Amino acid sequence: MSKQHLSTCLLLITTLLTACQDQDHPSDNTAPPNIILIMADDLGHAGIGCFGNEEIQTPNLDRMAAGGIRFTNFYANSTVCTPTRAALLTGRYQQRSGMEGVIYVKGPTREVGMSPAEITVAELLGERGYATGIMGKWHLGYQPSFFPTEQGFDEFYGYVSGNIDFHSHYDNAGIYDWWHDQDSLVEEGYVTDLITRHALDFIEKNKDQPFFLYIPHEAPHAPYQGRNDLGYRFPGEEFSYYGPVEDKDATYREMVEVMDEGIGKIIDRLQQLQLDKNTVVVFISDNGAERDYGHNGSLRGWKTNLFEGGIRVPGIVWWPGRIANRTVEQAVMSFDWMPTFLSLSGTPLPEDLELDGQDLSALLLENEPLPQRPLFWRYRKQKVIRDGEWKLLVDQDNGSMLFNLQEDPNETTDLAPDHPETVRDLSEKLAAWEREMDTGREMITN
């Protein structure tokens, strides 16, 4: 073979190899985006600076909001932990998986959890080729058969109960609760800092492939403990739920600020690795703040009830270069993230799986409004439908209350006596939804 022919063949081979490599490692413009979902625990609607809090310093969440989208009507799927997490990961009302109530650390619910047969966003993204990780709180089952690694997550660092001592890592029943995958792990450190550290490690390990990272923080859930406080929960000892610190308001403030500090480290790491332009970061909370600790602003109600203070929470999306900075007033919910992440990543939905959440990608990228839809909640003695500007709250003890949230977001005036037809229409829709949710299902309702 002549040198000229040999040179031509080598050039052709090089061209083909380059083309194959380009397909295997697409450019940032064509690669599916990395996805980071951060969730605070018991953070109320007015719990951070960009949502009106002047006491707590959250510069990193504020810069996310300043460069992204701030949702003023973002709703948790429930007013307590477990149900919101079930809806978030499955894209469906929590009633469909039987997770309407809290899985408590004591009693019979310690033996149950969300069935591994449920299809989660982590499972589908994993099939798409994503590395999947969760760093933080699970609260969808205490037994190993219900752990995150059985629900589509490749890696898990964190705890499975509702809350643990931030330093000793014992839960509210005095049981040690810190894990790596399915192995109990003895690891010293403040929970919020450990979550951040493992999140940063996961990003570093998976920087060369698409990843889905779920960061459900413990902060600012009780017990109220700062970085330099002592652990106080240990087996065989009596301890309080909220912890021994005297100035709980100051400690609560510190807990949120330490969480914000960790979020800043994640944003900085994305920028250092030049991943920020291809990473969508979402920040939400699982429900509103408690009655005595936290900040729901002027909203009525708190955690464990279905007034706005119990279910309306902060919502931020940050994706530099892809979404424009703005405020969105349309009502969206936790379960909307699963169909949104599947859409953004080009992940097909199984034909036999119907989601209740809606794809927000056109809203995020093109500012296209969502179609009108009713939204539903139910917890213990209360149930709710929000349809447009109207919200009907049915309380087992106090009857039906109707609010116009556009004119009265703080739910100060019950309009039910003045609008009987609206009450009747919304009641019929709510009853139809309950019939659909309750058909052939056992429900955890604690």
Automatic annotation (TrEMBL):
Pfam families in the record: Sulfatase
MF GO annotations: arylsulfatase activity
Keywords: Hydrolase
Keyword Transmembrane: no
Domain Sulfatase N-terminal: 33-346
Keyword Transit peptide applies: no
Family of the protein in this entry: Belongs to the sulfatase family.
Protein's UniProt name: Sulfatase
